[in-house]
Amino acid sequence: MSINVGFIGAGAIGRPMAERLIETSCALTICDVNPAVLAALAALGADTTAEPRDCATAEIIVVMVATDAQAHEVVLGPRGLIHGIDPKRPPLVVLASTLLPATVEAIADQAGKSRVAVIDAPVSGGVVRAREGKLTIMAGGAPADLERAAPVLNRLATEVHHCGVLGAGAATKIVNNIMGVASTFLMTEAMQIAGAAGLDRRRMASIMESSSGRNFGTQDWQAFRTLLGRYGHDVQAAKANVDVCRKDLHHALAMAAAAGIAAPFVQAMSAAADSSTYADIADRWKSLGT
Protein backbone atom coordinates (compact mmCIF):
# COMPACT_ATOMS: atom_id res chain seq x y z
CA MET A 1 0.00 0.00 0.00
CA SER A 2 1.46 3.35 -1.06
CA ILE A 3 1.15 6.23 1.37
CA ASN A 4 2.12 9.88 1.00
CA VAL A 5 4.76 10.70 3.62
CA GLY A 6 6.70 13.84 4.47
CA PHE A 7 10.03 13.31 6.19
CA ILE A 8 11.94 16.14 7.86
CA GLY A 9 15.53 15.50 8.91
CA ALA A 10 17.64 12.97 6.96
CA GLY A 11 20.64 12.73 9.29
CA ALA A 12 22.49 9.70 10.65
CA ILE A 13 19.31 7.79 11.54
CA GLY A 14 16.81 9.77 9.48
CA ARG A 15 18.45 9.03 6.15
CA PRO A 16 18.30 5.21 6.42
CA MET A 17 14.74 5.52 7.73
CA ALA A 18 13.85 7.59 4.66
CA GLU A 19 15.57 5.08 2.38
CA ARG A 20 13.52 2.32 3.98
CA LEU A 21 10.29 4.18 3.30
CA ILE A 22 11.27 4.74 -0.34
CA GLU A 23 12.12 1.05 -0.67
CA THR A 24 8.72 0.06 0.72
CA SER A 25 6.80 2.15 -1.82
CA CYS A 26 6.00 5.27 0.14
CA ALA A 27 5.57 8.44 -1.90
CA LEU A 28 8.14 10.49 -0.03
CA THR A 29 8.91 14.19 0.23
CA ILE A 30 12.23 14.69 2.05
CA CYS A 31 13.22 17.92 3.76
CA ASP A 32 16.81 18.48 4.88
CA VAL A 33 19.40 21.25 4.97
CA ASN A 34 22.12 19.15 3.31
CA PRO A 35 22.00 19.43 -0.52
CA ALA A 36 24.14 16.30 -0.98
CA VAL A 37 21.73 14.20 1.08
CA LEU A 38 18.78 15.59 -0.86
CA ALA A 39 20.48 14.75 -4.16
CA ALA A 40 21.15 11.17 -3.05
CA LEU A 41 17.54 10.66 -1.96
CA ALA A 42 16.20 12.29 -5.09
CA ALA A 43 18.17 9.71 -7.08
CA LEU A 44 16.19 7.03 -5.24
CA GLY A 45 12.91 8.60 -6.33
CA ALA A 46 11.97 10.96 -3.51
CA ASP A 47 10.78 14.52 -3.92
CA THR A 48 13.12 16.85 -2.04
CA THR A 49 12.98 20.28 -0.47
CA ALA A 50 14.78 22.50 2.02
CA GLU A 51 11.46 23.97 3.25
CA PRO A 52 9.54 22.09 5.98
CA ARG A 53 6.25 23.60 4.84
CA ASP A 54 6.60 21.74 1.52
CA CYS A 55 5.94 18.49 3.43
CA ALA A 56 2.66 19.75 4.85
CA THR A 57 0.34 18.20 2.28
CA ALA A 58 1.48 14.65 3.11
CA GLU A 59 -0.84 12.32 5.02
CA ILE A 60 1.80 11.59 7.65
CA ILE A 61 4.87 13.70 8.43
CA VAL A 62 7.84 12.20 10.28
CA VAL A 63 10.07 14.68 12.12
CA MET A 64 13.57 13.31 12.76
CA VAL A 65 15.70 16.33 13.67
CA ALA A 66 18.43 16.55 16.30
CA THR A 67 17.12 18.89 18.99
CA ASP A 68 13.97 20.14 20.67
CA ALA A 69 14.51 23.61 19.23
CA GLN A 70 14.78 22.20 15.71
CA ALA A 71 11.58 20.15 16.17
CA HIS A 72 9.72 23.26 17.28
CA GLU A 73 11.14 25.23 14.36
CA VAL A 74 10.28 22.77 11.58
CA VAL A 75 6.73 22.32 12.83
CA LEU A 76 5.78 25.77 14.13
CA GLY A 77 8.50 28.22 13.00
CA PRO A 78 8.20 30.83 10.24
CA ARG A 79 9.03 28.21 7.58
CA GLY A 80 7.39 25.40 9.52
CA LEU A 81 5.02 22.84 8.09
CA ILE A 82 2.12 24.35 10.03
CA HIS A 83 2.02 27.16 7.44
CA GLY A 84 1.52 24.80 4.50
CA ILE A 85 -1.26 22.51 5.68
CA ASP A 86 -4.61 22.14 3.96
CA PRO A 87 -7.12 22.75 6.80
CA LYS A 88 -9.52 20.35 5.10
CA ARG A 89 -6.91 17.55 5.15
CA PRO A 90 -4.67 18.11 8.18
CA PRO A 91 -1.76 15.64 8.49
CA LEU A 92 -0.61 13.51 11.38
CA VAL A 93 2.81 14.59 12.69
CA VAL A 94 5.07 11.86 14.09
CA LEU A 95 7.79 13.28 16.34
CA ALA A 96 10.46 10.57 15.98
CA SER A 97 13.28 12.60 17.54
CA THR A 98 14.26 12.12 21.18
CA LEU A 99 12.53 15.11 22.78
CA LEU A 100 11.47 16.18 26.24
CA PRO A 101 7.84 15.25 26.97
CA ALA A 102 7.17 18.93 27.62
CA THR A 103 8.41 19.77 24.11
CA VAL A 104 6.11 17.14 22.60
CA GLU A 105 3.15 18.52 24.53
CA ALA A 106 3.91 22.13 23.57
CA ILE A 107 4.21 21.30 19.86
CA ALA A 108 1.02 19.23 19.96
CA ASP A 109 -0.88 21.99 21.75
CA GLN A 110 0.02 24.59 19.12
CA ALA A 111 -0.42 22.23 16.17
CA GLY A 112 -3.80 21.16 17.47
CA LYS A 113 -5.11 24.67 16.94
CA SER A 114 -4.79 23.92 13.21
CA ARG A 115 -6.39 20.47 13.66
CA VAL A 116 -3.02 18.76 13.20
CA ALA A 117 -2.71 15.60 15.31
CA VAL A 118 0.65 14.73 16.89
CA ILE A 119 2.18 11.59 18.36
CA ASP A 120 5.65 11.05 19.78
CA ALA A 121 7.44 7.98 18.43
CA PRO A 122 11.19 8.06 19.16
CA VAL A 123 13.23 5.18 17.78
CA SER A 124 16.03 2.92 18.97
CA GLY A 125 18.24 0.46 17.12
CA GLY A 126 20.90 2.34 15.19
CA VAL A 127 21.75 2.86 11.54
CA VAL A 128 21.73 -0.76 10.36
CA ARG A 129 18.37 -1.58 11.89
CA ALA A 130 16.94 1.68 10.57
CA ARG A 131 17.88 0.68 7.05
CA GLU A 132 16.42 -2.81 7.50
CA GLY A 133 13.16 -1.60 9.05
CA LYS A 134 13.97 -3.32 12.34
CA LEU A 135 13.89 -0.40 14.77
CA THR A 136 12.10 -0.34 18.10
CA ILE A 137 9.60 2.51 18.41
CA MET A 138 8.31 3.90 21.71
CA ALA A 139 5.08 5.75 21.01
CA GLY A 140 2.82 8.04 22.96
CA GLY A 141 -0.53 9.48 21.94
CA ALA A 142 -4.16 8.69 21.27
CA PRO A 143 -4.77 5.08 20.13
CA ALA A 144 -6.60 6.31 17.01
CA ASP A 145 -3.59 8.44 16.01
CA LEU A 146 -1.20 5.51 16.53
CA GLU A 147 -3.43 3.36 14.35
CA ARG A 148 -3.35 6.05 11.70
CA ALA A 149 0.46 6.09 11.84
CA ALA A 150 0.79 2.29 11.80
CA PRO A 151 1.32 1.91 8.02
CA VAL A 152 4.47 4.04 8.35
CA LEU A 153 5.67 2.85 11.76
CA ASN A 154 5.37 -0.79 10.75
CA ARG A 155 7.62 -0.18 7.76
CA LEU A 156 10.29 1.22 10.05
CA ALA A 157 10.12 -1.07 13.07
CA THR A 158 9.64 -4.66 14.12
CA GLU A 159 8.52 -3.52 17.57
CA VAL A 160 6.13 -0.63 18.20
CA HIS A 161 5.31 -0.10 21.85
CA HIS A 162 2.36 2.09 22.85
CA CYS A 163 3.73 3.58 26.06
CA GLY A 164 0.72 5.68 27.00
CA VAL A 165 -0.52 9.23 26.56
CA LEU A 166 1.21 11.90 24.47
CA GLY A 167 4.76 12.35 25.76
CA ALA A 168 5.03 8.84 27.21
CA GLY A 169 7.06 7.60 24.26
CA ALA A 170 9.52 10.46 24.70
CA ALA A 171 9.82 9.77 28.42
CA THR A 172 10.36 6.06 27.79
CA LYS A 173 13.11 6.76 25.26
CA ILE A 174 14.94 9.12 27.61
CA VAL A 175 14.87 6.60 30.47
CA ASN A 176 16.07 3.88 28.08
CA ASN A 177 18.89 6.12 26.92
CA ILE A 178 20.17 6.65 30.45
CA MET A 179 21.11 2.99 30.42
CA GLY A 180 22.17 2.94 26.76
CA VAL A 181 24.56 5.87 27.13
CA ALA A 182 25.94 4.50 30.39
CA SER A 183 26.59 1.13 28.78
CA THR A 184 28.48 2.68 25.87
CA PHE A 185 30.78 4.80 28.01
CA LEU A 186 31.27 2.37 30.89
CA MET A 187 31.77 -0.69 28.69
CA THR A 188 34.47 1.20 26.78
CA GLU A 189 36.33 2.09 29.97
CA ALA A 190 35.85 -1.39 31.45
CA MET A 191 37.34 -3.05 28.39
CA GLN A 192 40.27 -0.64 28.32
CA ILE A 193 41.00 -1.62 31.94
CA ALA A 194 40.58 -5.31 31.06
CA GLY A 195 43.10 -5.02 28.22
CA ALA A 196 45.58 -3.18 30.41
CA ALA A 197 45.29 -6.01 32.94
CA GLY A 198 46.21 -8.51 30.25
CA LEU A 199 42.75 -10.05 30.01
CA ASP A 200 41.27 -11.42 26.82
CA ARG A 201 38.49 -8.98 25.99
CA ARG A 202 36.36 -11.48 24.07
CA ARG A 203 36.47 -13.89 27.00
CA MET A 204 35.76 -10.99 29.34
CA ALA A 205 32.63 -10.10 27.36
CA SER A 206 31.48 -13.73 27.47
CA ILE A 207 31.93 -13.89 31.24
CA MET A 208 30.13 -10.57 31.73
CA GLU A 209 27.24 -11.80 29.55
CA SER A 210 26.54 -14.56 32.09
CA SER A 211 27.30 -12.35 35.10
CA SER A 212 26.21 -9.09 36.66
CA GLY A 213 28.08 -7.00 34.06
CA ARG A 214 25.70 -8.00 31.25
CA ASN A 215 24.86 -5.20 28.80
CA PHE A 216 24.32 -4.72 25.08
CA GLY A 217 28.09 -4.71 24.54
CA THR A 218 28.47 -8.17 26.06
CA GLN A 219 25.49 -9.54 24.13
CA ASP A 220 27.53 -9.26 20.93
CA TRP A 221 31.05 -8.06 21.62
CA GLN A 222 32.07 -8.07 17.97
CA ALA A 223 29.04 -5.98 16.96
CA PHE A 224 29.82 -3.57 19.79
CA ARG A 225 33.41 -3.23 18.57
CA THR A 226 32.12 -2.50 15.07
CA LEU A 227 29.87 0.18 16.52
CA LEU A 228 32.78 1.76 18.41
CA GLY A 229 34.85 1.71 15.23
CA ARG A 230 32.10 3.55 13.39
CA TYR A 231 31.73 6.09 16.20
CA GLY A 232 35.46 6.62 16.71
CA HIS A 233 36.98 6.52 13.23
CA ASP A 234 37.36 10.32 13.31
CA VAL A 235 36.59 13.22 15.62
CA GLN A 236 33.59 14.43 13.60
CA ALA A 237 31.93 11.02 13.77
CA ALA A 238 32.56 10.96 17.52
CA LYS A 239 31.20 14.48 17.92
CA ALA A 240 27.90 13.59 16.28
CA ASN A 241 27.38 10.68 18.67
CA VAL A 242 28.71 12.41 21.79
CA ASP A 243 26.40 15.37 21.20
CA VAL A 244 23.42 13.00 21.12
CA CYS A 245 24.59 11.29 24.32
CA ARG A 246 25.03 14.62 26.06
CA LYS A 247 21.57 15.76 24.98
CA ASP A 248 19.96 12.54 26.20
CA LEU A 249 21.60 12.87 29.62
CA HIS A 250 20.57 16.52 29.88
CA HIS A 251 16.99 15.50 29.08
CA ALA A 252 17.13 12.82 31.78
CA LEU A 253 18.31 15.36 34.34
CA ALA A 254 15.56 17.76 33.29
CA MET A 255 12.96 15.03 33.79
CA ALA A 256 14.41 14.21 37.21
CA ALA A 257 14.43 17.86 38.24
CA ALA A 258 10.83 18.35 37.11
CA ALA A 259 9.81 15.37 39.25
CA GLY A 260 11.88 16.50 42.24
CA ILE A 261 14.05 13.37 42.06
CA ALA A 262 17.74 13.40 42.95
CA ALA A 263 19.83 11.66 40.28
CA PRO A 264 23.46 11.97 41.43
CA PHE A 265 24.81 9.14 39.29
CA VAL A 266 23.17 10.47 36.12
CA GLN A 267 24.47 13.91 37.09
CA ALA A 268 28.01 12.56 37.45
CA MET A 269 27.82 10.73 34.13
CA SER A 270 26.47 13.83 32.41
CA ALA A 271 29.27 15.96 33.88
CA ALA A 272 31.86 13.44 32.68
CA ALA A 273 30.39 13.39 29.17
CA ASP A 274 30.28 17.18 29.07
CA SER A 275 33.88 17.60 30.23
CA SER A 276 35.45 14.92 28.00
CA THR A 277 36.79 16.14 24.69
CA TYR A 278 35.58 14.72 21.40
CA ALA A 279 39.15 13.70 20.56
CA ASP A 280 39.58 11.78 23.81
CA ILE A 281 36.32 9.89 23.37
CA ALA A 282 37.12 9.19 19.71
CA ASP A 283 40.50 7.76 20.73
CA ARG A 284 38.86 5.50 23.34
CA TRP A 285 36.30 4.17 20.88
CA LYS A 286 38.84 3.76 18.10
CA SER A 287 41.21 1.82 20.38
CA LEU A 288 38.58 -0.90 20.84
CA GLY A 289 36.79 -0.66 17.50
CA THR A 290 37.17 -2.62 14.31
Can you lay out the helices and strands and say which pair or pack?
Blueprint: E1 4-8, H1 14-23, E2 27-31, H2 35-43, E3 47-49, E4 60-63, H3 68-76, E5 92-95, H4 101-112, E6 117-120, E7 123-124, H5 126-132, E8 135-140, H6 143-156, E9 157-164, H7 168-196, H8 201-209, H9 216-219, H10 221-232, H11 235-259, H12 264-275, H13 278-288
Helix pairs in contact: 1-5, 3-4, 7-11, 7-13, 10-13, 11-12, 11-13
Compact overview of the structure:
The protein is α/β, with parallel strands linked by helices. It has two domains: 4-166, 3-Layer(aba) Sandwich (Rossmann fold), CATH 3.40.50; 175-288, N-(1-d-carboxylethyl)-l-norvaline Dehydrogenase, domain 2 (Orthogonal Bundle).
Summarize the structure in words.
- The protein contains 13 helices and nine strands.
- Helix 3 links the parallel strand 4 (60-63) and strand 5.
- The longest helix has 29 residues, at 168-196.
- The chain has helices at residues 14-23, 35-43, 68-76, 101-112, 126-132, 143-156, 168-196, 201-209, 216-219, 221-232, 235-259, 264-275, 278-288; strands at 4-8, 27-31, 47-49, 60-63, 92-95, 117-120, 123-124, 135-140, 157-164.
- A six-stranded parallel beta sheet has the order 3-2-1-4-5-6, sandwiched between helices.
- The termini are far apart.
- The protein is α/β, with parallel strands linked by helices and 290 residues long.
- The protein has two domains: 4-166, 3-Layer(aba) Sandwich (Rossmann fold), CATH 3.40.50.720; 175-288, N-(1-d-carboxylethyl)-l-norvaline Dehydrogenase, domain 2.
- The average pLDDT is 96
Q: What percent of the residues sit in helical stretches (DSSP H or I)?
A: 55-70%
CATH architectural category of the largest domain:
3-Layer(aba) Sandwich
* Cα end-to-end separation: 40 Å
Low-confidence stretches: none
CATH class of the largest domain: Alpha Beta
Total domain units: 2
Q: Give the SSE order as H and E letters.
A: EHEHEEHEHEEHEHEHHHHHHH
Side by side, the strands of the main sheet go 3-2-1-4-5-6
